Amino acid sequence: MSKQKLAQLKKAVAPFEKSDNKSSVKQMINTFIPFFILWFLAYQSLSISYVLTFALAVVAAGFVVRIFIIFHDCCHQSFFKSKKANAILGTITGVITMFPYEKWKREHSIHHATSSNLDKRGTGDVWIMTVQEYVNASFKEKILYRLYRNPIVMFGLGPLYLFLITNRLNRKDARRKERLNMYLINFLIVAVYAILTMTIGWKALLLIQAPISFVAGSLGIWLFYVQHQFEDSYFEDETEWDYVKAAVDGSSYYKLPKVLQWVTGNIGYHHVHHLSPRVPNYNLEKAHDSTPPLQQATTITIGSSLQSIHFRLYDEKQKTFISFKEVKRRQAKYGMKLEKQEPNFQVK
Fold first, then answer.
1. Containing domain of residue 31, as a range?
2. Number of structural domains in the chain
3. Structure pTM?
4. For residue range 211-252, what is the model confidence (pLDDT) as tens digits?
């Protein structure tokens, strides 16, 4: 696709960038109310069966994912027309999802501006090493990278690390507004959990909230991971990198069953979202269906997306993801000897 056609593609999506307050309020109603009802029912069910409590918690976790999508839209200033309204709702949903609004807004905007750019990795994205970087890495770096990319660590320990550490600390270069928002959200989280502990007890709170946070966190990381980690995903050096091409070819269309599409706030239309972050989640499907070229984006399903677990390193020469086993096989067969070079990524 030529640069001219790519530019026309971005222009075609522009009409869907307008947020609609009526649609936004409707989404808040059909998301927040069911979540709080499910939370209350989970508490009530503790006296009946924890199996029932756990089942209700899992369903509630799905609504937390949907709440996060609202938070995500607020960060892009796309949920409401008013910046102030986005900031207020973004902070409220940040308390529920345990994500800092101002910090994440900044990091996520960097992610959008640098997605698929091999020379600007490290902020707001998943740690990706190229084959050559991995081969040239020290033993310690290889161990750390292998641990990071291990599914148990990424999807099991990842949510705990995000909620309790990364999302609770300011960046060193954070501005005053960002720092104050972090302090506010941390204070509100502590206050909410303190009130709940005094009201229903810490054991009941743990039995309900732990599975909700864990399941929602794991699903969120999975969605973020899988939509950029597919076999022929687009990655280029700074000199060759193109924003629109990165959006269309570097993000997938995650075709989910309608129920899961609704729960995940249409984020499966990730190629549309990266092409135009100002499109609110309730307009993503419309933009996709109304723009034929977008329908040619790489489509993955739940079944095919599971293959991405084995994609660990990006091969710059073949323009594809490969596994650790494949690198080992190549080294054994061809005796890969790459020139020592400084890796062009950084983890922040």
1. 3-334
2. 1
3. 0.91
4. 999 999 999 999 999 999 888 889 999 988 988 888 888 999
